[in-house]
């Protein structure tokens, strides 16, 4: 059975699938058909925790670890990089099954979406993704949706400007990507700057402020002397990171003024234009250079308006994130009003993913996924008479 036929059976109608794929094709996005069985390594290394813990894994005769594709972004990106058009501006659409353990829900479900590679006009490409995502919800008769947006590049720019120890930069950015522990971590750091005493205080003091490479070398040497490579399920690299974390905590690595700036930043939310004003005020007051990241946000807002998106309906939040480690900039979700949990559509910019997948040069990338189950639950094909 083809992907489109499977969708038709699940939804009980062919009209919405045809409409959705047609709208993508009219936008210049060629349909991709990546393999269902994929190498597991990219998903284990590059996806968010939610995807990593839900993979269906297997091993082939050669010992390579494989998985059923849990989403389609990485498979489409891998096929693009393997093609003769890698590095060129190309857009793809897709519609097909993905596989994740979801605890009581079907593990196989349908996903549609778009991936755009190689466009240098990032702000315009971001706005186009949001506009096409809104068109996808309209194809199901859903027009009154909540538009939630954020930009991890702003948070990264803030952390870089604060010039924190490398270990805390990594820790805070990782927490931001996970969406769940950043606030807790900040509160813990506020209370954790007082020095303590333990039997390895001297080692921690020596590591304070060190870069990860130096700490990894030290921990590797110490563990090789002890004849161990794994302790409590943690690798050498993980233990080195833990030592760095403890050493910077003991040294009070995050000053009070830096914590206050981060908290003020994370409190900015609301209309995008107003958020731009608040971000510029924060940068001015804190004497931080966030100009490039804020300019990119402001440019994106302008392109959204040019694409016909009513920016008054867009909610921006500096703390918004989607829980995927590979996002590098713009992120968004569309929700049915009144449903704060399950997104209808979700996407964003992931410029760093392409080099992580093996590209010798950086390639801009942005896209979104459509959650078919949610759309069919709340809407119906517009061609059949929508509820909007």
UniProtKB/TrEMBL annotation:
Superkingdom of origin: Bacteria
Keyword RNA-binding: no
GO cellular component: cytoplasm
Alphabetized InterPro entries for the sequence: aa-tRNA-synth_II/BPL/LPL (IPR045864), HisRS-like_core (IPR041715), HisRS/HisZ (IPR004516)
Gene Ontology BP annotations: histidyl-tRNA aminoacylation; L-histidine biosynthetic process
Recorded GO MF terms: glycosyltransferase activity; histidine-tRNA ligase activity
Gene3D superfamilies, A to Z: Bira Bifunctional Protein, Domain 2 (3.30.930.10)
One Pfam family it belongs to: tRNA-synt_His
Keywords assigned by UniProt, alphabetized: Amino-acid biosynthesis, Glycosyltransferase, Histidine biosynthesis, Transferase
Residues holding L-histidine: 71-73, 100, 111, 115, 322, 326-327
Ranges where the Class II Histidinyl-tRNA synthetase (HisRS)-like catalytic core domain occurs: 17-191, 253-375
Keyword Signal: no
Protein name (database record): ATP phosphoribosyltransferase regulatory subunit
């Amino acid at each position: 059975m083809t992907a489109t036929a499977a969708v038709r059976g699940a939804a009980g109608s062919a009209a919405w699938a045809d409409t959705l794929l047609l709208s993508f094709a009219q936008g210049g996005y060629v349909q991709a058909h990546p393999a269902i069985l994929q190498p597991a390594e990219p998903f284990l290394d590059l996806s968010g925790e939610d995807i990593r813990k839900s993979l269906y894994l297997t091993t082939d005769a050669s010992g390579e670890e494989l998985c059923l594709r849990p989403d389609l972004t990485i498979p489409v990106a891998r096929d693009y990089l393997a093609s003769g058009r890698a590095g060129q501006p190309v857009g793809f659409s897709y519609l097909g099954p993905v596989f994740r353990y979801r605890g009581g829900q079907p593990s196989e479900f349908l996903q549609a979406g778009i991936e755009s590679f190689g466009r240098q006009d990032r702000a315009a490409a971001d706005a186009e993704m949001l506009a096409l995502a809104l068109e996808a919800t309209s194809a199901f008769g859903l027009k009154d949706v909540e538009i939630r947006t954020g930009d991890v590049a702003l948070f990264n720019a803030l952390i870089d400007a604060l010039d924190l120890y490398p270990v805390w930069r990594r820790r805070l950015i990782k927490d931001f990507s996970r969406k769940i522990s950043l606030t807790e971590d900040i509160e813990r750091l506020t209370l954790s700057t007082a020095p303590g005493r333990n039997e390895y205080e001297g080692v921690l003091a020596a590591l304070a402020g060190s870069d990860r490479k130096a700490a990894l070398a030290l921990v590797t040497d110490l563990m090789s002397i002890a004849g161990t490579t794994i302790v409590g399920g943690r690798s050498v690299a993980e233990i080195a990171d833990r030592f760095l974390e403890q050493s910077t905590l003991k040294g009070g690595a995050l000053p009070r003024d830096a914590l206050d700036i981060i908290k003020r930043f994370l409190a900015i939310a609301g209309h995008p234009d107003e958020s731009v004003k608040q971000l510029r005020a924060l940068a001015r007051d804190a004497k931080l250079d966030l100009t490039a990241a804020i300019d990119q946000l402001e440019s994106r807002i302008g392109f959204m308006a040019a694409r016909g998106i009513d920016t008054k309906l867009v909610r921006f939040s500096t703390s918004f994130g989607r829980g995927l480690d590979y996002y590098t900039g713009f992120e968004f979700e569309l929700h049915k009003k009144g449903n704060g949990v399950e997104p209808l559509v979700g996407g964003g910019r992931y410029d760093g993913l392409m080099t992580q997948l093996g590209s010798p040069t950086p390639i801009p990338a942005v896209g979104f996924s459509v959650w078919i189950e949610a759309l069919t639950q709340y809407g119906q094909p517009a061609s059949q008479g929508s509820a909007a």
